[in-house]
Design a protein that fits this description.
heterodimer; A: Rossmann fold; Rossmann fold; 2 domains; eight-stranded mixed sheet; five-stranded mixed sheet; globular; B: alpha/beta; Pyruvate-ferredoxin Oxidoreductase, domain 3; six-stranded mixed sheet; 6 helices; 6 strands
């Protein structure tokens, strides 16, 4: 924008990806953080510990482990807080059970997972993208979930705000996947004016407490959620429950419950599936990438264009629900697509699933704790 | 912005041992260049799991246009504060790139074309060996024509805690003046691609 409104309270800072997550969370109204610091996500906890106590109602708790961290985040969210936690590899594994609990109790929360090289303790200070399928399917049982990713520091801020909005709007846990490179890159970012942001907060009941049904179906499939302690009494359980929140195993009630928690996400795919198209319009070969590898791919596409190659880049910001329409469009348009990622092929598996023979899907995998370089991508891209 | 030099992916690697303040150095330089000079800067870091002693490095990519790939590809400037780092990263340097070494830590350089000052010894002379990184920062401010001492000092003051500012400013000036004295024409020798 050439004309800058001076009244706007925009601010430029030089910040880490992790610090941008905190800025985004605070803009989105986060006022509760519980966590157990772990490299490479530690700066999120540090910055939250510094910033939250300054807020009127801000609470920061360091818990004894990751299981308890997510447990207290769920509790805080049920009590009306906008709550989040952040972790990495081993901590994310510990949190899996509670992710399922948040899914079935439809508790909004944001979980940032800064991916590091695994399995197990792996390489704490090296990047990887190995938790993509774990984020989707890590907790047991058939469940819907939203998984987002971010590649640069400004995006960390924006996607954190988006993650909070989605979690509140759809009453679901949202997982934001970063990787070590994104989290530990410092860049200049613009903190937007709070009045420019679209912030969504959960729906509150409009009926008196005695009429309130906590898990009642409606058009959106998302029921109103009063904070516990505000006079609306309801039962919260990990057992499959009926509209009142009490355990049920009646096939009809179970079926309609599970269908509803899927439908509340499924019918808003157009809202949830965020992608960024770079030079896609006339592309004959395309890269599909996410996270920090998306940035390598961006330079690779630029280099390919300089050589006269019609290359494009589809950056996935929403990983799950998998942005099928955007990917299918590129598969129809291009003779070959390349999926570079720092794992053995967790998103290329999804691309191949939706491909159904329309295009050639090439993969480029790196699992040695190093980011994929633009030169590697370019070489593979030109090979077709 | 108009006074600034145009840069297209100028890549710097600051390398040494964990505990030498490499990451802080990168942060101060990055903030000065990003917020005060208005460049786009991507500062990445890489370090071992140890708190002290392991290899540590911080990379800066500085550009007038948007930066897509945040890591370095081939270096314009390598700063080595340990022998190991010097040996390891020298091959990443561009043919026209410059090497800056701490001569009190690096005994053997792979080339005799380099800018060398005894940063660690100078920091000891300032009174606090922990200011090695700031002494280096002072020297770099002289070497790099697009970095202004005023904004680096400003960035220094905003990042470091106030009670250690004075000694660090002293260290900064020591580095800056020594570099100016020993290599008066270093800033003019750059070949910008």
């Amino acid at each position: 924008m050439a004309t800058k409104n001076k009244k706007k309270k925009e601010k430029e800072i030089f910040a880490l990806g992790n610090e941008a997550v905190v800025e985004g969370a605070l803009l989105a109204g986060c006022n509760f953080y519980a966590g157990y610091p772990i490299t490479p996500s530690t700066e999120i906890a540090e910055e939250m510990a510094r910033r939250l106590p300054l807020l009127e109602e801000g609470v920061f708790i360091q818990m004894e482990d990751e299981i308890a961290s997510l447990g207290s985040v769920i509790g805080a969210s049920l009590a009306g807080r906008k709550a989040m936690t952040a972790t990495s590899g081993p901590g994310f594994s510990l949190m899996q059970e509670h992710i399922g609990y948040a899914c079935i109790t439809e508790t909004p929360l944001v979980l940032v997972n800064v991916m590091r090289a695994g399995p197990s303790t792996g390489m704490p200070t090296s990047p990887a993208q190995g938790d993509v399928q774990q984020a989707r399917w890590g907790t047991h049982g058939d469940h819907p979930i939203i998984v987002l990713s971010a590649g640069d520091v400004q995006e960390c801020l924006e996607m954190t705000v988006t993650a909070f909005n989605f979690s509140e709007k759809y009453r679901t846990p949202v997982i934001l996947l970063l990787d070590e490179v994104t989290a530990h890159t410092r860049e200049k970012i613009t903190i937007p004016d709070p009045s420019d942001l679209y912030i969504y907060s959960r729906l509150l009941p409009s009926m008196p407490p005695e009429w309130y049904l906590p898990f009642e179906d409606n058009m959106r499939g998302v029921s109103a959620m009063p904070p516990l302690g505000s006079g609306y009494r309801y039962h919260v359980t990990g057992l499959t429950h009926d509209d009142h929140g009490y355990p049920t195993s009646k096939p009809r009630e179970v079926e309609s419950f599970i269908n509803r928690i899927f439908r509340k996400i499924d019918q808003f795919f157009y809202d949830i599936q965020i992608v960024e198209e770079i030079y896609c319009q006339d592309a004959t070969s395309c890269i599909i990438a996410y996270g920090s590898v998306g940035r390598s791919a961006e330079l690779a596409v630029q280099m390919a264009r300089d050589q006269g190659e019609k290359a494009g880049l589809l950056k996935l910001k929403t990983l799950f629900p998998f942005p099928r329409p955007a990917v299918e469009k590129m598969l129809r348009q291009c003779a070959s697509v390349l999926v570079p990622e720092m794992n053995m092929g967790q998103i290329s598996r999804e691309v191949k699933r939706v491909n159904s023979g329309q295009s050639k899907v090439n993969t480029l995998n790196r699992i040695d704790g190093q980011i994929i370089t633009p030169a590697e991508i370019l070489k593979k891209l030109l090979k077709g | 912005m108009s006074r600034e030099m145009k840069l297209d992916r100028f890549e710097i690697r600051l390398s040494g041992l964990g505990g030498q303040g490499i990451l802080t150095l990168g942060k101060i330089m990055g903030q000065a260049l990003a917020l005060d000079h208005g460049y786009n800067v991507a500062q990445t870091q890489s370090y071992g799991p140890e708190a002290r002693g392991g290899a540590s490095r911080s990379d800066l990519v500085i550009s007038s246009s948007t930066i897509s790939y945040p890591k370095t590809i081939s270096l314009d400037l390598l700063v080595a504060l340990s022998q190991e780092a010097c040996n390891k990263f020298f091959t990443n340097l561009k043919p026209s790139g410059a090497l800056v070494v701490d001569t009190s830590m690096v005994g053997q350089t792979p080339t005799n074309i380099f800018l060398g000052l005894p940063f660690t010894d100078m920091a000891r002379k300032v009174g606090l060996v922990q200011t090695t990184n700031i002494v280096t920062l002072g020297a770099l401010t002289h070497f790099l024509p697009f970095m202004r001492a005023v904004s680096v000092r400003k960035s220094l003051k905003s990042i470091l805690p106030s009670k250690i500012i004075d000694i660090n400013l002293k260290a900064f000036n020591a580095g800056f003046n020594a570099a100016k004295k020993q290599y008066p024409d270093a800033p003019e020798k750059w070949i910008f691609s």
